[in-house]
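Supplementary notes for students who missed Thursday's class. We covered one full example, reproduced here. Read the sequence, then the structure, then the short commentary at the end.
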Amino acid sequence: MVRKKQRYFVVEIIYEDNKVDLNLSREDIFRAIRLSIQDLYGDYGIGAFSLNLFVKYVNPYTKLFFVQAPREYQIIIRACLTFIKMLRNRLCILNCIYVAATIKSAEVFLLKRDKETLRALYKNCKNVSERAKIMEFTKKQNLDVLNDLL
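Structure (token representation):
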């Protein structure tokens, strides 16, 4: 049996007004991707590309999501993601920040990126109380991100 090779796109949503959309769902993102495929590749694109296309993970707080697509269509899907300008009637830009071969490697990348963000926040703290809040958060999440900074 032949294994189907997939690619996982880690995509960041950058809204024009920089606000969080808590009602964002997988279906909203999938619909926007299908519309982009329709605009760029027509009926052929819908039939060929969207059959094996899945939105695997959505986090409206971090404005990130994962898209699973067949490896042979990765360039086409990435182009379609680039041309999406609206999600739920809000202007946005989709930034593909990483392409992984497995969902596990996409998750590892995301964890590493979040740790780097926490480190940057910690370094930019202006007073002790802000640093204490970040330390408390990392302890609650069982992250040993800030050990090298102390």
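Commentary. DSSP finds four helices and five strands in the chain. The chain has a mean pLDDT of 88. If anything here is unclear, bring it to office hours.
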